[in-house]
Specification:
The protein is α/β, with parallel strands linked by helices. The chain is built from 4 helices and 7 strands. The protein has one domain: Rossmann fold (3-Layer(aba) Sandwich). The protein is globular.
Length: about 140
């Protein structure tokens, strides 16, 4: 499923994602500067996150409170191998919470749980295209 948007349509893009994902795990792929964190902030707003949302590039995992419990926001950009992912306890988070993972390429083929893959591409400086794929295990 595809959706094109500009910054003024980011709420609509977030609505599209939340209405079409297959579960509580969202893997977000895209180049540096493609707008991953900006879109994730809007998704968290739609999920009624009470905390300030920021990129977990250095902390690796941020936990945000919301009406339904927790939203877990992970960034695997600095992770070099699967052993580091296991050390983080990433797989322990996969059940019971809404999970958003940026730079998920290291784990994409290892998930045996329903999840959605969101790919963000540049159309031009003001427009993005998202492609959402649901994976059923």
């Amino acid at each position: 499923m595809e959706f094109n948007y500009g910054i003024e349509e980011i709420k609509e893009a977030s609505d599209f994602i939340l209405k079409n994902i297959s579960g509580k795990i969202l893997l977000v792929c895209g180049d540096v500067g493609s707008g991953k964190t900006t879109l994730i902030k809007e998704i968290c707003k739609q999920l009624k996150v009470k905390d300030q949302v920021s990129s977990p590039t250095y902390t690796l995992i941020n936990e945000y409170s919301c009406e339904d419990g927790l939203v877990i926001h992970m960034d695997l950009y600095r992770i070099e191998n699967k052993e580091e992912i296991n050390d983080l306890g990433l797989f322990e988070y996969l059940y019971n919470k809404f999970i958003i993972i940026e730079w998920p390429e290291l784990i994409m083929n290892d998930l045996d749980i329903n999840h959605s893959i969101l790919k963000i591409d540049f159309i031009d400086t003001d427009k993005r295209k998202i492609n959402l794929t649901n994976i059923f295990s």
